[in-house]
Amino acid sequence: MKPEATGTPWPYGPKDRVVLGRKGLVVGVLLSDIVFFLVPGVIGALRSPQYADYQLSWLPILMAFGAIPICVVAVPTAMLLGKVLRSVRSQWVHVAAFTLAGALVGNLVGASFTGWTAHTLFHMTLPAALAAGVGRLAIWKLVMVNDHPSLTYPPLPSNPHSQNPG
Q1: Strand partners of residue 60
Q2: Rg (CA), the chain
Q3: Predicted structure pTM score
Q4: Percent of the chain, pLDDT > 70?
Q5: How many angstroms separate the CA atoms of 145 and 38, rounded?
Q6: Which residue of 29, 79, 96, 133 is surrounded by the most CB atoms within 10 Å?
């Protein structure tokens, strides 16, 4: 969404190409929370289908209690990464960076509890990577994209023949 389309002035610097508002932040965090806890539930249901109902029944409880570590670890990481990526206009770069950061943070947090095992990969790294990537992909249309003013310095004149050669 372009800032002109929202009818609000651009409240950020001229080099900020992609900026997320509160609505996008809330949607991204909630969807990431759902995906983060749904992935292990689906993996567990696929591994032992007879207990699928039991494993998926824990999803609402996990989402509620998972809000604490998500607010402590994931949201600050996402905000920092979003701040770093503000000058990058390509949304695909944002999605890839969030997926990679999710995998890295999930791996570090998971390894601190269980060590470097396959359990860490399936229950922390994969869900964190998918949650971060899907969350960022879902808010693609909710970000404000700044195309004006141009990021070139010095600004290019509109008519190249009107330049002063001095």
Answers
A1: none
A2: 21
A3: 0.74
A4: 79
A5: 31
A6: 133
Q: Using one digit for the tens of pLDDT, what is the confidence trace for 50-104?
A: 888 887 888 888 888 888 888 899 999 998 998 898 888 888 999 999 999 999 9
Count Cβ atoms within 10 A of the Cβ of residue 133 and give its class: 0-12 exposed, 13-18 middle, 19 or more buried: buried
- The region, left, alpha or beta by phi > 0 then psi within -120 to 50, assigned to residue 115 is left
> What is the distance between the alpha carbons of residues 35 and 135, in angstroms, rounded to a whole number?
8
Spatial contact of 90 and 19, defined as CB atoms under 8 Å apart: no
Partners of 18 in the beta sheet? 145
Identify the residue whose tokens are 């390509």. Answer: 90
**Helix 91-114 × helix 75-84 angle, to 10°:** 140
Q: No. of H helices and E strands in the chain? A: 8, 2
Q: Which two tokens stand for residue 94?
A: 């944002």
Task: Name residue 125's amino acid.
Answer: T
Per-residue pLDDT tens over the stretch 112-121: 887 778 777 7
